[in-house]
UniProtKB/TrEMBL annotation:
Pfam families: BTB_2. Residues 1-44, 297-317 are annotated as: Disordered. This is BTB/POZ domain-containing adapter for CUL3-mediated RhoA degradation protein 1-like. PANTHER family: BTB/POZ DOMAIN-CONTAINING ADAPTER FOR CUL3-MEDIATED RHOA DEGRADATION PROTEIN FAMILY MEMBER (PTHR11145), BTB_POZ DOMAIN-CONTAINING ADAPTER FOR CUL3-MEDIATED RHOA DEGRADATION PROTEIN 1 (PTHR11145:SF26). The lineage of its organism: Eukaryota, Metazoa, Chordata, Craniata, Vertebrata. Residues 1-10 have a biased composition (Polar residues). It comes from the Eukaryota. One of its GO terms (cellular component) is Cul3-RING ubiquitin ligase complex. Belongs to the BACURD family. It comes from Sinocyclocheilus grahami. InterPro entries: BACURD1-3, BTB/POZ_dom, SKP1/BTB/POZ_sf, T1-type_BTB. Residues 52-152 form the BTB domain. One of its GO terms (molecular function) is ubiquitin-protein transferase activity. GO terms for biological process: negative regulation of Rho protein signal transduction; proteasome-mediated ubiquitin-dependent protein catabolic process; protein homooligomerization; protein ubiquitination. The gene is LOC107552471.
Amino acid sequence: SSLEMLPSNSEGKKKHENTTFQKFGVGKSGSAASPSSHVGEEKAGRSLAGSKYVKLNVGGTLHYTTVQTLSKEDSLLRSICDGSTEVTIDSEGWVVLDRCGRHFSLVLNFLRDGTVPLPENTRELEEVLKEAQYYRLQGLVQHCLTTLQKWRDVCRGCHIPMITSAKEEQRMLATCRKPVVKLQNNRGNNKYSYTSNSDDNLLKNIELFDKLGLRFNGRVLFIKDVLGEEICCWSFYGEGRKIAEVCCTSIVYATEKKQTKVEFPEARIFEETLNILIYENGRGSGLGGMALLESGGASSPGVGQSEEDGAGVGGGDRRVRRIHVRRHIMHDERGHGQQTVYKD
């Protein structure tokens, strides 16, 4: 009959559901349909030959560049472009790379320009190095290694030992084969107030010490002493004995009170640092080195007073050049009742 030829309600509903699921590429149960029924799957091994532009999905970060840029260096990225390395390309044409995309823009900029500013953080720089090694970009690898080495050298130059006891100082001087420059800085020993320029000069001495430590890194050992009796005093050692000393403090006498004055004899300090290089690698043992030191031991005019004594080890002919700033005696020449002015 005509009623038997019409499909039942259940059969018609079933047919409608099958048509709907096939349209969207999934089965009735919600699982993906077979590969032949849709084009949304990821394909591996497709070559980028003949392409001009490349879309890259690196760990979820998207980048758009050219095949020419990726092929500038003999690297993993070039092998991806010429098809010698298989890659995964999704249905939208994105090349999927299973790497962290945080530094990939830096990798692309290096390929574009041949150089790139590197992160100033050591940890981030090491991360960039790992990415450069993975992509086999030898130019970027060398750039990272060179920068890391410079940072390590600077860190070694900034590492200055701090003396905590007299025994430690003696042991350090006896075992060190390099010339030694020591800055003794102890403001706790000051009994009087400072003159107007003393604070600035004290900071200048400390800054000069740090600059010399960086400049002569690896050649001279720089140490600090905050336990000694002097407020600001430089000492220079060669072969385990003191060669010279520059004391930067003095007492200024006025009519009513005493003041501590700190000098900054920059030229003399720099000269003694250069003189101490004679003892580098044991070269100061000869008579020529001693003669050169003796000839350079005269005090510069206006800097201070130079003294020599035989406190050195090995005989009276080895003397320590002691350079002290002049003691200034200032008299108040103002009339009675006028305010006293203390000058530096």
